[in-house]
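Q: Give me a protein?
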Amino acid sequence: MRKFILIISISILTYFINKNFLENEKLFILFLSEKLSLKQIEDFLTFQKKWQWVSYLTIPILLLIKTTLISSVLYAGAFFYSKASITFKQLFDAVIKAEFVFVGVGILKIIWFYFFQTNYTLEDLQYFYPLSALNIVGYKGLDAWFIYPLQVLNLFELAYWLLLAYFIGKLAFTEKDKGKPMDLGFKIVASSYGSALLLWVVVVMFFTLNYS
C-alpha cells in the first residue's frame, strides 16, 4: 500500500509540474488559434482551470485500473506456466514495484523541456516520449496511427518487462523447474502481459485510423 501511495504521489507531482510549468496558456492559444475564436479559446481555458482537479483525481483511479488489469493477466499467465502457488496480492505488489520505472518518463520529460528544448509547441509536449522509437523518427509527417506504437516501443517498456520477469520469476520458480527463474518469469510476462499489450496497441491503432 505504501508503494502504491508513493507512486501516486510522484505521478501527481510530475503532472502538476508539467501542467503548471510546461503547458502554459501561450501554448494553448497558439495551438487553438487556427481552429477557434479568441472567445472560444478563453472559454476553453476557463473551463480547463475550473475542472483541472478532476485530472488529479483520475491519476490514482487510472493507475489502480492499469495495475489491476496487468496483475490479472499475469495471474492467468502464472496459472498456466508456474507450479508455485502465487497469490494475486503478490503479483500486484510485483507490478507496483515495476511500475516505478515509468515514473522516470515524467521526470525526464520535465528535465528535457525545462533545461534543453526550451522552445517547443504543444504537439512537442504531447508526442514526446523519452528513449522511444518515436523520438528517433519524429512525429512530424507521420501517420497518426503510427504514433502510439512507436511511443510504446521504448527503453522504459523494456525495463518494465525485465523487472516484471525478475519479480515474477522469483515468485513462480520452484525446485522442479528447469533453467533460471528469470527465464520462467519472462515466459509468463511475454505470454500474458505481452499478448495483452499487443492487443491494446492494435485496438488503439484501429480507433486512431478510423477517427483521425
User: Anything to note?
Assistant: The chain is about 80% helix and 0% strand.
